[in-house]
């Protein structure tokens, strides 16, 4: 695995590989890699000739008072994990390399960014779209891999690729969970012991919400979920049922039950997506 820190080196290696007709698979991450990330890298490596993983904690997607400075980082661990999972190129740019001067342009997401996580994180998805667009320009991937845990992000990136005619196929990979159901996240290390004990309830409530939605309709299920989450110690940010991937408050073939809870040092998100024709989780 080659570790590359500059955009020019990355571009020239990938140009060479593209001339050799190599298929490029891309996994953008913010590092502190866990089994959720390595499952994305495994998937990419299985269908690509060259698998590129980027690690960049993107300041543009963190709002004021969010955890940009305390976001967990461990480069040695990440290099080992990326190599083991099958990455060929690890792109590790510095903030100065990615943003040599303040951006004069930013992408603004027009639809779907003001609900769920976007409602309490204004500008977050503009920052995500901007950095992913930059990374796509540098890597020009044939395929890019995103986790279902960040379902709203995956939906918006899929829309971005469609709207801008980007020649990259977006793959959304099921959430990897710890044994008790807690979704893998780099931020889980920041849970206090009693919060870690409670956190698997998030997935349990979402699953029950999805079953109830099938029986009694989404809005009854949504209010049941909200009550169930209020009983936890984490502060409820949102618990909603929406259509997926359009993220509208309407019934459709595919639905999502999604929630975010704020604990002392960390905000956790999770979701369950199902097909209403046949209550089958797509994860
Ligand atoms: O999902 C993430 O880790 C980030 O939002 C991403 C896609 C790498 C953009 O910074």
SSE diagram, text form:
Blueprint lengths: L1 E3 L2 H13 L4 E6 L5 H13 L2 E6 L19 H11 L3 E3 L3 H4 L18 H4 L3 H16 L3 E5 L3 H13 L5 E5 L19 H6 L2 H16 L1 H13 L4 E9 L10 E9 L4 E9 L4 E2 L2
Parallel strand pairs: 1-4, 2-3, 2-5, 3-4, 5-6
Antiparallel strand pairs: 7-8, 8-9, 9-10
Helix pairs in contact: 6-7, 9-10
Pantoate binds next to strand 2 and helix 6.
Textual characterization of the structure:
With about 280 residues, this protein is α/β, with parallel strands linked by helices. It has 2 domains: about 1-175, HUPs (Rossmann fold, 3-Layer(aba) Sandwich), CATH 3.40.50.620; about 190-270, Pantoate-beta-alanine ligase, C-terminal domain (Pantoate--beta-alanine Ligase, Chain: A,domain 2), CATH 3.30.1300. About 40% of the residues lie in helices and about 20% in strands. The chain has helices spanning about 5-20, 35-45, 75-85, 95-100, 115-120, 125-140, 150-165, 195-200, 200-215, 220-230; strands at about 1-5, 25-30, 50-55, 90, 145, 170-175, 235-245, 255-260, 265-275, 280. It has a 6-stranded parallel β-sheet with strand order 1-4-3-2-5-6, sandwiched between helices. A hairpin with a 4-residue loop joins strand 9 and strand 10 (about 280). The protein is globular, with a radius of gyration of 19 Å. The two termini are about 30 Å apart. The structure holds pantoate. Pantoate (PAF) binds near residues 30, 128, 131 and 132. Pantoate (PAF) binds near residues 128 and 153.
């Amino acid at each position: 695995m080659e570790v590359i820190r500059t955009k020019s080196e990355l571009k020239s290696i990938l140009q060479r590989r593209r001339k050799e007709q190599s298929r490029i698979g891309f996994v953008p991450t913010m590092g502190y890699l866990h089994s959720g990330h390595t499952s994305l890298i495994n998937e990419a490596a299985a269908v690509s000739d060259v698998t590129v993983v980027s690690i960049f904690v993107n300041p543009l997607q963190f709002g004021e008072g969010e955890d940009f400075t305390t976001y967990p980082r461990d480069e040695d661990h990440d290099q080992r994990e990326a190599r083991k999972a099958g990455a060929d190129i690890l792109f590790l740019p510095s903030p100065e390399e990615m943003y040599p001067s303040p951006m004069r342009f930013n992408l603004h997401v027009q639809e779907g960014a003001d609900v769920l996580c976007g409602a309490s994180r204004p500008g977050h998805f503009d920052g995500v779209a901007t950095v992913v667009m930059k990374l796509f320009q540098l890597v020009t991937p044939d395929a890019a891999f995103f986790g279902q845990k960040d379902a709203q992000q995956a939906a918006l990136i899929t829309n971005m690729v469609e709207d801008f005619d980007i020649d990259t196929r977006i793959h959304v990979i099921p959430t990897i969970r710890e044994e008790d159901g807690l979704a893998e996240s780099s931020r889980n290390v920041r849970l206090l012991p009693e919060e870690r004990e409670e956190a698997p309830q998030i997935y349990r409530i979402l699953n029950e919400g999805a079953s109830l939605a099938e029986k009694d309709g989404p809005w009854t299920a949504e209010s049941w979920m909200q009550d169930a989450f209020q009983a936890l110690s984490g502060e409820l940010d949102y618990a909603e049922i929406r259509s997926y991937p359009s993220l509208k408050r309407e019934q459709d073939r595919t639905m999502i039950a999604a929630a975010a809870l704020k604990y002392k040092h960390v905000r956790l998100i999770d979701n369950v997506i199902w097909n209403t024709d046949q209550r089958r989780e797509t994860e």
